[in-house]
Amino acid sequence: IQLTQSPSSLSASVGDRVTITCRASQGISSYLAWYQQKPGKAPKLLIYAASTLQSGVPSRFSGSGSGTDFTLTISSLQPEDFATYYCQQLNSYAWTFGQGTKVEIK
Amino acid sequence: QVQLQESGPGLVKPSQTLSLTCTVSGGSISSGGYYWSWIRQHPGKGLEWIGYIYYSGSTYYNPSLKSRVTISVDTSKNQFSLKLSSVTAADTAVYYCARVNVATIPPAFYYYFDYWGQGTLVTVSS
After folding, report:
1. Distances (CA, A) of B43 to A11, A84, B14, B32, B92
2. A33 touches chain B (CB under 8 A)
């Protein structure tokens, strides 16, 4: 299953609302997770089961969607949120990741 | 707090076997309930799932790598390991180990990678 994220990169300002889209090549129900990765660091889990916020993750992060179309929303972008974001499908093997969306400072 | 730490050679010659170990602390692999996985990231690129193992030894591998991958577990040392044979320059990557958790949201089970090691760069070069 291929995952296509859009956009591949975006520039935004602190306080902006940011939305990242992940589209699956076939239906994956809600078997989708989102991760944040900063340079030189391991990915960090943000959301699983498409919309369940991982413990300790700020509530400005939210996920939605089911089937083939999913979104990750950051309601008010903070300085520490500038990073690359990946979606991952865990519906069927092989588990796959999207190509990533880099969120940069405007 | 669960922690994972990768270890192994940072340089491997072409055609040889890449071997990495992930040491888990703060939790026991043999307690069950989790899968233990390897993921890699080519320089400047995205993430690729390699495979996972359960404490019992059952495994599942990415079909694209299956012919070259072996993942094993040593519960006495609380470690799991990756072997990737016949490596080429295309296997140069940062290799991560991670814990795969499972959430029960009836009627389904949802997997996710909740703890990751810091990653280790493996370069394939003569």
Report:
1. 23, 14, 18, 33, 8
2. yes
Residues of A in contact with B49 (CB under 8 A): 88, 94-97
Mark which residues 7-46 of B lie under 8 Å from A by CB: 46
A chain contacts of residue B116, beta-carbon cutoff 8 Å: 42-44
Give B-chain residues touching A43 at CB under 8 angstroms. Answer: 47, 96, 113, 116
* Rounded CA separation B125/B67 (Å): 21
What average pLDDT does chain B have?
96
pLDDT tens profile A12-61:
999 999 999 999 999 999 999 999 999 999 999 999 999 999 999 999 99
Helix (H) or strand (E) holding A23: strand A18-24
- A95: nearest Cα among B52, B36, B49: B49
Q: What is the DSSP letter of B75?
A: T
B40 in Cβ contact with B95 (< 8 Å): yes
Please check the confidence at residue B18 and state whether its pLDDT lies above 90: yes
Per-residue confidence band for B3, with pLDDT thresholds at 50, 70 and 90: very high
